[in-house]
Amino acid sequence: MSYPTELLRGITAKDQIDDDEFPSSVLFYFTERDNLPKRSDNNIEESINWRDDAGADDVLFNQLKEDKQLQFRFGAAVVCRHELDRVIQTNVVNHQLSYERKAIPENKYHGNLLLSRDVPPRVRKKISATIATMCVKKIMPNPNNQL
Predict the structure, then answer these.
(1) Threshold 0.85, pTM exceeds
(2) Is 48 helix (H, G, I), strand (E, B) or coil?
(3) What angle do the packed helices 81-88 and 121-134 form, to 10 degrees?
(4) How many CB atoms lie within 10 A of CB 131?
(5) Quick one: which of 2, 18, 52, 60 is 20 to 30 A from 112 by CA?
(6) How far apart are CA 105 and CA 94, in angstroms?
(7) CA distance 88 to 75
(8) Which residues pair with 60 in a beta bridge?
(9) Helix ranges, the chain (H)
């Protein structure tokens, strides 16, 4: 499968970016959620948008929560897929991190970052921090946010 050179990770909370507007590791921490069914491949998923074209930005920045508020009001991190591929191949990660394209009816750009459930929490933190510091090209503010 072909993937674009960039992906987007939406920012839902202020603690996902630090005071200098750099992403914190919290933005990429893989959390097991009780409201999602367990995947048959034993992975934990975190949603992303594949940046195939400018439409990916529009879909992400216009996404609403159930209460009709912006889902990603704090913006989005632009992630370099080539840097992510390098992280995947490191000894610490050892290919336990991957990604997929998984379009949903309301978002053709949707996909997931995937991490094996077997990765211990202390290593998850290292992986999250590495993605935040090594793979993020920039933070884009949400142009629709009226703070």
Answers:
(1) yes
(2) strand
(3) 150
(4) 25
(5) 18
(6) 33
(7) 25
(8) none
(9) 54-62, 81-88, 121-134
User: What's CA 52's distance to the chain center, in Å?
Assistant: 15
* Token duo for residue 85: 């591929």
Q: What residue spans of 15-139 are helical by DSSP H?
A: 54-62, 81-88, 121-134
Burial (CB < 10 A; 0-12, 13-18, 19+), residue 43, is buried
Q: Radius of gyration (Cα) for the chain, nearest Å?
A: 15
In what helix (H) or strand (E) does residue 136 lie, and over which residues does it extend? strand 136-140
pLDDT at position 74 is 95
Across the range 43-55, mean pLDDT stands at 97
Token digits of residue 32: 């097991």
- Would you state the structure tokens that stand for residue 121, as one six-digit string? 């929490």
Q: How, if at all, do strands 136-140 and 76-80 pair?
A: antiparallel
15's tokens: 């603690």
pLDDT at residue 32 in the model: 85
Residues belonging to the chain: 147
- Residues 6 or more apart whose Cβ sits within 8 Å of residue 38: none
86 token code pair: 């390098």
